[in-house]
Request: fold
Amino acid sequence: MTSNSIRQKEIAEKTGYSINTVSLALKGSPRISEETRLKIMECARQLNYIPNVVARSLVQKKTNTIGIILTELMNPILTETAQEIEQLLKQAGYNMMLMITNFSPEQEAEALDVLVSRQVDGIMMYPLVRANFSKIRAMHDQRFPIVLLAGGEYDSPSDAVYMNRQAGAYKAVSHFIQDGHRRIGFIRGAMNDEEKQNGYTSALQDNGIDFDPGLVSIIQGDGYKAGYASVQSLYEKGKATAVLCSKDHIALGAMRWCREQGIRVPEDIAFIGFDDIAASSFADVPLTSVQYDVKSVTKKATELLLKRIEEKEHKVGAPLQKIAIDPKLIIRQS
Amino acid sequence: MTSNSIRQKEIAEKTGYSINTVSLALKGSPRISEETRLKIMECARQLNYIPNVVARSLVQKKTNTIGIILTELMNPILTETAQEIEQLLKQAGYNMMLMITNFSPEQEAEALDVLVSRQVDGIMMYPLVRANFSKIRAMHDQRFPIVLLAGGEYDSPSDAVYMNRQAGAYKAVSHFIQDGHRRIGFIRGAMNDEEKQNGYTSALQDNGIDFDPGLVSIIQGDGYKAGYASVQSLYEKGKATAVLCSKDHIALGAMRWCREQGIRVPEDIAFIGFDDIAASSFADVPLTSVQYDVKSVTKKATELLLKRIEEKEHKVGAPLQKIAIDPKLIIRQS
Reply:
């Protein structure tokens, strides 16, 4: 007798149903009423027997559930990422379970543990730079399917599909320079934006423009309000005629400040943002933006993860893969 | 020998580690290296032995994980709801696992099953109206802790904490009437907005204004674009001088159309939206809005769920509870 059938006998004894009924209920058979099934499941839960979806997976060695780990949900790009992945997975017959880390390395490590312990078949994550790379590398080395949605610029610990943010910033600054700008500022959010600054500085350098630290403003807090509050010094003291912002919300806030001051965009000062969120195309002066191509990233990442899961089932090996997606500059009036 | 220790012996045999090492690894002991722990966990996974977080919960009969089910993530109110709940749960020592239903009754039912089978300690959900109420009622009757974040206006199948949307619409329309409006339109999103329409019609009725079906426009699709496209007929054919919109995004889109046509807000036509999202306070003409008080809803719902979990542990009973939160009208210039 297997330990599963011992447990089923226990559940039958406790609930007063027959072993046959218990077995059918745990398999999710439509022959069992919802009420009976829930009673049996609750008993199974108390006995730490795992019913239904997992019971099926005990046979398949699969749960058809994928874990997603994101840093936050207030960023519209990440919200859209979650939404797209959910739909792609649903089409492929998988459920998505989402956890968020609030930019905390400890929460990120815990989310990985929780999802592995809940026996997800694989994980897609938007990682904190380097925070848990050794843990992720160890998981990858153990052939746990895990695809990163950023961080491919670094020594990536696992498969990664990512927007090349450095190339995006380079493209934006080059666009400013072609338009004749030489005093180009950069408003940088504190989180995860070092590649954007790398792209900014290398575009200046390649065009013979000296880097001026007075033209870089590193901000904290909410994008819109921080953009609103930080542009004045770049415009007045830094004499910037163009400003790259590491998020669209920052640029939208900065442009609002300009409008209130009677400073014309783009005549007096031009702006480019990052991510091309919906609000950017609807702004008073529609915002030029480096597009974050959510659809491409999520599609390629999901395909890669499902391929890894399949390879694992068939015990086929394959080297770590990095897929960089080159961003487009969406040129509007700003 | 319990079935757990039989499994640990099996894992020890398969991996070549001692039973003691296996046991420590599965408990998440820091004495075991990450690499060893991952090898043991992977083996445990293959043997369908559930490690670590769940192993701990086998003792506690708790997983300290709460499931959250939302209809979508593109609605900023739901995004904020998820973010707030995550932080409240984290403070209370719980992890959050989020699933989304895309407004599909089948996906909603499946999300409930998946989360129960993953042994979450409780669920908070933003339910589809009536879709799975009998299932939710059966779960509630089985004393599975489940708190709804909407739907308390109906014959609620479980505990519910919700914004009183009907009262919100009533308040908004009364505000229009106090300002002298008699031709009041309503642009209604297709989903879940029947309570708002009830509030709209009863405010008209209580003020002796006849209901004119030509002043109600039920829209599909994206809020901003749909608002932009639907306001013309209310303004031109319906002669509306004020319009209640069931989402702020709808009002913002409608106001953009007015601005492009040279129609003044609020002089020619006034607007009130729902939810008081961040973009509403930043709009050209800051939008008056019925506030969705995410912080109150999430705080009360989380408290109620944790109380239910505790009551269940102590086998204490309590009647079903409904907590309605009365919305404020945030009056701005629109």
